Amino acid sequence: MYTRSHYSIFIVLAALLLIPPGALAQSSVGSPRCMQGPMLGPVSDSTATVWARLSGEFPFRVGCALDAGLTEIIWSEPVTAQRDDDFIVVAKLESLQPGTRYFYRVEVNGGNPAYLGGDAIGSFMTAPAPGTPAKFVVAYGSCGRVQRDPVQPIWNTVANFAPHLFFWIGDNMYGDSLEPSILAEEYRRARDVPNLQPVLRKVPQLAVWDDHDYGLNDHNRTNPIKEEALEVFKAYWPNPSYGLPDAPGVFFTYSYGGVDFFFIDCRYYRDPNAEPDTPEKTFLGAEQLQWLKDELSASEAAFKVIVSGSGWTAAKGEGGDSWAAFQHERDALFEYIRTNEINGVILLSGDTHVGELNAIPWSERGGYDFYDLVSSPLAQPASDNWRNRNPEVRLRPGFEKANVGILTFDLTGTPTLTFDLYDAEGKPAWEPFVITADELQNGVQSYPGKIVME
Predict the structure, then answer these.
(1) Is residue 189 part of a domain?
(2) 82-87: which pairs have CB atoms within 8 A and are 24 or more residues apart?
(3) Within this chain, do residues 144 and 89 fall inside the same structural domain, yes or no?
(4) With a threshold of 0.85, does the pTM exceed it?
(5) Could you give the CA distance from residue 46 to residue 94 in angstroms, rounded to a whole number?
(6) What does each C-alpha distance from 355 to 90, 230, 311, 431 come to in angstroms?
(7) What's the confidence (pLDDT) of residue 15?
(8) Which of 96, 129, 131, 426 is deepest in the core (most CB within 10 A)?
C-alpha cells in the first residue's frame, strides 16, 4: 500500500524526467555557452582550428564530418577554458583529408552550448594537397570600426563570395587605448557584429594588426604596452605562429593552394614616422626584415604575397604613416628581390580608408613592377584623401565606399591572379586587375597597359 510519502517521491521523479538533459549539471555552473565565436582559424591540408570564448571554465571540443548530419564525426582533443586566459579556447581538428569540405559543431561542458544546439553550425574547406594545382579565393580588408558602423553590411558581400580564406590586415578593431583590458573588450565588440557571424563560422581567418588595434593612432615601437597588446592579439587571433623566439611580433608565413603569404608586423619595431628617413631608420626591425628576406628566398611559389597593414607606395609623403616614411628600407627590400631574382611578389595593404590600386614601377630599375592592392575600409565612412596624394603610379581611381578585396588565384594553368574590389551591395569598384606570374619577373614591364583611370 502506497503512503503519502511514496506519492511525493513519484511526483519528484516525474518532475525530474521533465527536466532537459544536462540542466541539473548546469544549474550549479550557469549556462555553458560561447560568448564569442566559434570562429574558424587557419586550415592546412589535414588540420583546422576553431577559436571560441566561453562563459566559464568549461571543457570545449569540436566535431566535424563530411555531411551536415554529422553521421561519422571526428572530434578534436578537448581543451578547458581558464579564467586567466579570458575563457578563450582553441581546438584543433586533425587527420582530415585535403581539399575536402567538412561540417562541424562545438560542444561545451559535455553538451550542446546554449544558442548553438547540436546541429552543424558551419563548414570549411581544408587546403589542397601540396603540389596540387588549385583555384581559390581570398577575401581581405582593413579598418572595421564598430563604433562608426555597428551593422557592417560588407559582411553580406563577403559571405556571398564564399571565399576560402579571409585576411584581416590591420585596424581590425579600434582599441585606441593603453589599457589591455580595453583592447580585449573592443575585440569582443567587434566579434559580436551579427552580420559577421556567418563569415567567422565558415571562412578560415588570419590576421595582422595596425596602429588602432596595436595601441594609439600612428603608434610605433615606443608603445608602452606593446608586449601586453601582443598578448591580447595572440589570445584573439589563432594564427599559425607569432614572430620568432627572439623577435616577438605578429608576423608569420602561411601557404595555401600553391601560394605563399608573408604577413608582416608593421608596428612592433617601427621607428617614429617623423624621424628622418635614413638607411638606419627601420619599419620592420632587423630580425623581422632578415626573416622576410629568408622566407622570400626560400619560397618556390608562383605568387608570393606580402601582407602589410601600412600602404607600400609613396602616396602619403615624407613622414606619412606608411612605407612612404621608410623608403630607404622599402627600396632596399625591393632591390633584394631584384638582385636575388625572386619572382612573383604581390603587395597587399589597407589603412587608407579608401580602396586603391597602385604600382611601383621597379621595371625601370631592371626588376619588375610591384603592385599595391589596397582594401579599406571594411566598415566606416570612406575618405576622398587619395585625391591629394601621389603614389608612384595610380592604376585606378580611389574607391570612396566601404569595400572588400577579392583575390582569385588560379594555378590550374598559367598562374594568374585577379584582383577585384566590391562595395557592401556587391557592386564592383572598377575593371578587374589581372596579372600573370610571368609578368612578375625581372626585365618585364607590365604596368602601362593596366592603367584604367576612367
Answers:
(1) yes
(2) 82/57, 83/57, 85/235, 86/53, 86/184, 86/235, 87/35, 87/53, 87/54, 87/55, 87/56, 87/57
(3) no
(4) yes
(5) 6
(6) 33, 28, 11, 13
(7) 41
(8) 96
Please say whether the beta carbons of 127 and 48 come within 8 A: no
Residue-wise pLDDT tens digits, 14-32: 443 444 444 434 556 789 9
CA angle (387, 393, 395) in 5-degree steps:
75
CB burial of residue 11 (10 Å; 0-12, 13-18, 19+) = exposed
Q: What is d(CA 52, CA 6) in angstroms, rounded to the nearest whole number?
A: 47
Q: Identify the CATH number of the domain in which residue 89 sits.
A: 2.60.40.380
What is residue 399's three-state secondary structure? strand
Residue 443, helix vs strand vs coil: coil
The pLDDT of residue 26: 53
Q: Which of 251, 444, 272, 247 is nearest to 344 (CA)?
A: 444
Number of domains in the chain: 2
Tell me, what amino acid is at 2?
Answer: Y
Report which of 287, 377, 290, 362 is spatially closest to residue 327, judged by C-alpha positions: 362
CA distance 268 to 317: 22
Q: Is residue 3 part of a domain?
A: no
Helix (H/G/I), strand (E/B), else coil: 436: strand
Residue 390 cell numbers, joined: 601621389
The per-residue pLDDT for 27 is 53
